[in-house]
Specification:
The structure is a homodimer of 231-residue chains.
Chain A lengths: L1 H11 L3 E6 L4 H10 L4 E6 L6 H15 L4 E4 L9 H23 L8 E6 L12 H19 L1 H4 L1 E8 L5 H4 L11 H6 L6 H14 L5 E5 L2 E4 L4
Parallel strand pairs in A: 1-2, 3-4, 4-5, 5-6
Antiparallel strand pairs in A: 6-7
Chain lengths: 231, 231
């Protein structure tokens, strides 16, 4: 989802796209740059599980260079219920810490200009895949956190919405471990359901970015984009 | 809530009550033992943030001694949105790890006898207090995890339900930090709402234990006990 969404974002034509990822992929950066020469695409190595202070330092480098940043997309995610601590660290704590770090630069109480946060959660945040209870719970947490952020926008000047993909044909769901192997065939069973392509998901993601609705809970499933109601 | 619930549990008369907590409280153990001489009350020091292997070792000691354990209550919790990592580690990861550890002894796939898990979550799992978005999200995660456990009961033989207290007059809510101080008066504001006493909450907790319904999501608010519907 990450690469196809980056392609769609580049096509939509922002001034800059900064990609943060654990692993550098120069071919992908080159492809993205070629796709729309008006967009400056840059890459920084980043692991969302690093301490908050380290994230703040990286963001300072980026803000110093770009002066302003309009949108933060928190999209790091893993799906492997054999790795309890890491699932929680990446899918939940990573989103909270990266968000907390950027508030230093955006929070209007510190004279910041505000900003927009798009958190990639998952439909499993509201309809869990119970064979991966840790993954599903980490996504429920990311969704709850995002909804709270949206309600804090009047205080912080920072708005937020969640992007909740359904089952999408990615490497993530091709093969993964269930909790305590409660269902060794979970990946197969999941892919028996109707799915969507990463391109469909990415195109709807950009539509959600363009809609820019504070508090929206976007469901991106089966090639559709729908706002859903949730407490 | 912990001590008053322990009092109500001892009154209800199980053979054994094993308390696990970071801090030993010999006066409380003595009081509980005196309350019902038929119940053996014991204490082990336990911090839910220790690695899984350490939890398994402690549980082995307890299972070796008692032979069988019928009910695990995961009740450790902190409320302080200045402590992001610790909130997640105690309220979410601690519940997942303690549950995962006890499966070694209970899972029917390993020849275990099954068991029952009662997880203390919170009404903020479904109605977040957005001024403490990390706490609320950690409880949303614990709730989602518990609901998945219940749906896995046919595989594991272990049933589960959640205990979701509303605002209860405890030391936890007397004074606590909001996320990035978004609302310095959050504790005061919260206590302007109607609340319940810890004794009311504890008595309803024991009723929920006696009801023993797999998958139940119990709301314990304003002195009432109500099952709620949630996906």
């Amino acid at each position: 989802i990450g690469l196809d969404t980056s392609r769609e974002i580049v096509k939509s034509g922002p001034k800059n796209l900064v990609l943060l990822d654990r692993i550098d992929n120069p071919a992908a950066i080159a492809e993205l740059s070629a796709l729309n020469p008006k967009v400056t695409v840059t890459f920084y190595p980043y692991d969302v599980t690093v301490p908050l202070a380290e994230t703040k330092k990286l963001l300072k480098t980026i803000f110093d260079k770009l002066k302003t940043v309009d949108l933060l997309i928190n999209g790091a995610g893993i799906l492997d219920d054999h790795q309890i601590e890491r699932t929680i660290a990446v899918n939940f704590t990573g989103t909270v810490n990266t968000t907390t770090a950027i508030m230093d630069f955006w929070d209007k109480r510190n004279g910041g200009p505000g900003g927009v946060i798009a958190n990639i959660c998952s439909v499993t945040g509201f309809n869990s895949i119970y064979q991966v209870p840790v993954y599903s719970a980490s996504k429920a947490a990311a969704l709850s956190f995002t909804n709270s952020l949206a309600r804090l926008a009047s205080v912080t000047g920072v708005t937020a919405y969640s992007i909740n993909p359904g089952i999408t044909k990615t490497v993530l769901v091709h093969k993964f471990n269930s909790w305590l192997n409660v269902e060794p065939r979970v990946a197969e069973l999941l892919l028996e359901h109707p799915t969507q392509t990463t391109v469909q998901c990415a195109q709807n993601f950009v539509k959600a970015i363009e809609a820019n609705q504070n508090g929206a809970i976007w469901k991106l499933d089966l090639g559709r984009l729908d706002p859903i109601e949730w407490t």
